[in-house]
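Run log, item B.
One chain of 190 residues. Sequence copied directly from the ordering sheet:
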Amino acid sequence: MVVLNKIYTRTGDGGNTALGNGSRVPKHALRVEAYGTVDETNATIGMARLHAEGEMAARLAAIQNDLFDLGADLCRPDMASDASAEYPPLRMVPAQVDRLEAEIDAMNAALSPLRSFILPGGSALAAHLHLCRTVSRRAERLTAALASEDEVNPAALKYLNRLSDWFFVAARVANANGADDILWVPGANR
């Protein structure tokens, strides 16, 4: 269990921060950018949840919890040392990716096929979910960049890839199952 008695520590005043394994890196390090953007994604979900009810609200809450797991995973480098760690690190698992895929498939089953790209908007919930989608895509790009330089749990990267798809489909559901989607009209304002 996490206990936060003191919120500020002054240890980051010089522009460095501690990773989950205790090592210190610059606050602008790619790993910190990646898990920081995962945290930003989580904050955008908090805004979306203001407009969600029922099953959608519950699914968004589950994703928020997953994103804390993902942040914990990304802030802990050196996966090879997991087995010998004093406190085994929390890692994303394929079942979390599988759950997103099942939810995407279930939501998508009720939607008509698209004949155009969608402009972000429609209902308040859909607009917020599109924002979640774009921020999660940035988190994915940063995590992919990190994976090209350092070891990253493959399930973490897969989760982020599915997550933006989840938000896209959920936004369509929030737009009356796609009936209220705003379609792109190529060249409409020429």
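Observations after the first pass:
- The mean pLDDT is 92.
- Residues 124-149 form the longest helix (26 residues).
Flagged for discussion on Thursday.
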